Amino acid sequence: MRQISPAAALLAVAVLPLALTACSATPKAAPKAAPKSAPTAATAATPGALTSAAAGAPATDGPNKGLLTGTGLGPALAPASFFPAGYAVEVEGERTSGPGYRKQEVVETPTPDCTLLGGTSWTNITGITGVSFAQDDYVNKNTSEEYAQEIDVYQGATSTTVLGALGMLSKVCPAFTDDQTHGKVTVTEKPLPGVGDGAWAITETSPAWQGGTTLVAARVGSAVVTVLVSSSTDKGAAGATRLTTQLVGNLKGKSS
Question: Which of these, 155, 102, 95, 158, lies nearest to 132 by C-alpha position?
């Protein structure tokens, strides 16, 4: 991971998008659903990059005081029983940052990679890496429809900065090209009232898809929940809202 200097970088990430202009399955001619997202999962931190926390418990002092570790976040993810029949967890997509903390880092992104919106860890588009995370994906092997869920935790007010940046993604990335079908994907976004401490819903559609994909980001204290749901029968909005609401509820009272 790369790091640049402190608070000024956070401010840059929050305001730069306003000034910016727009910017795996085997591909099929007419896929049953929006294609299964490309894996852009965050890589688990190496032991040397972690600050230890006893048995995964939140730190009792310092900048990570009260913040959940990856081990603590794991149980807050929706369990297998939450997902519809026919969906199974992708073992390679199950990741957490473990029982310690990573160094919070910021990478300046004057030209965001809009194709990250086609992957599971799409929050990486902000360039801000939190101190802990947990994620997994559930896929219907028959239709390639997918549910992906991730929770990232940040120090201080950084979670608010991240959600603010995610709330401007449709301005920065009104469209991008899908790697699997090579079709144009149109991106629209709107607030999602009543979910967590603020939430945004992003809808992705393409003439090459049947159905669509919805991404939702919601803040719960120091944590940001991000989900991706693709569906062949609708745009995934109902499933994404339901999954986000579940994760927000799981985090209530746990995330400082």
Answer: 102
- The domain locations on the chain are 7-19+31-251
CATH class of 7-19+31-251: alpha beta
Distance (Å, rounded) from C-alpha 58 to C-alpha 80? 26
pTM of the model: 0.82
Other C-beta atoms lying within 10 Å of the C-beta of residue 110: 11
Q: Look up residue 63 and give its two tokens.
A: 């900048």
For CA atoms 185, 191, 192, 195, give the dihedral sign.
positive
What is the structure's pLDDT at 51? 60
Model pLDDT, residue 204: 98
> What does the pLDDT read at residue 158?
98
Task: Give residues with Cβ within 8 angstroms of 207, minimum separation 6.
Answer: 183, 184
- Residue 175: per-residue pLDDT: 98
Average pLDDT by consecutive 10-residue portion of the chain (256 residues)? 26 33 30 55 44 71 95 97 96 94 92 94 95 98 95 98 97 95 96 97 96 97 98 95 98 82
Q: Is 98 left (phi over 0), alpha (psi -120 to 50) or beta?
A: left
Nearest Cα to Cα of residue 148 among 218, 230, 45: 230
Which token pair is 35?
Answer: 């294609």
pLDDT value at residue 54: 57
What is the bridge-based pairing of β-strands 184-191 and 175-177? Answer: antiparallel
d(CA 154, CA 243): 21
Quote the tokens at residue 40.
Answer: 């852009």
- The C-alpha R_g of the chain, in whole angstroms, comes to 17
Q: What number of helices (H) and strands (E) belong to the chain?
A: 5, 11
